[in-house]
């Protein structure tokens, strides 16, 4: 696989550091981004796919991003092709699809694996910090969401069927906890 498809990612710290912003990852259309840029913000991390029954959640993700962006909230999208091969596109195809169909303006990153031996360390950290039902660490499907508090802790994990508008009260609580 090519470097882009396997998402060879840089890390500036330990994979299991308690301070999540120590990660640096490749953006969807190239260039690395240091997660220090999100320090002190409320962050929603989502594994995404363009050909999934939950793909329409892009609209809801964009809506909550725009609604709370000025208050220190950001959505970070991570395309993943591990579930039913529902994200087969190239970075340009994914970017174009997201922009054309949903007007996505929140940061999108290079395609990643979220489970298994090739899972990106960010997702290994998220799964260990915010396990699923009955303590499971596996991500079960596309559009699993993780909410990160302004102090860098993974505070909530949401299943794929949870719509972005359903977590607005949690977003507001963590945004208001900054002040």
Structural description of this entry:
With 179 residues, this protein is α+β, with helices and mostly antiparallel strands. The chain has a single domain (3-177), classed as Glutaredoxin, CATH 3.40.30. Helix content is 26%, strand content 16%. It is built from five helices and six strands; from the N terminus they run αβββαβααββα. The strands form two sheets. It has a four-stranded mixed sheet, with helices on one face. The protein has a two-stranded antiparallel sheet with strand order 1-2. The model is unreliable at 1-17 (pLDDT under 50).
Largest sheet: 4 strands, mixed
- State the CATH architecture: 3-Layer(aba) Sandwich
- End-to-end C-alpha gap: 45 Å
Structural class computed from helices and strand pairing: alpha+beta
Task: Write down how many β-strands occur, each being a DSSP E stretch of 2 or more residues.
Answer: 6
In oligomeric terms, what are we looking at? Answer: single chain
The number of helices is: 5
Q: From the alpha-carbon coordinates, what is the Rg to the nearest angstrom?
A: 15 Å
Helix content: 25-40%
Shape by Cα distribution: globular
**Considering the protein shown, what is the CATH homologous superfamily?**
Glutaredoxin
CATH class: Alpha Beta
* H-E order: HEEEHEHHEEH
Q: What is the CATH third-level topology name?
A: Glutaredoxin
Number of domains: 1
Query: For the residues shown, what is the average pLDDT?
Result: 87
Unreliable stretches: 1-17
Strand content: 15-25%
Strand order of the largest sheet: 4-3-5-6
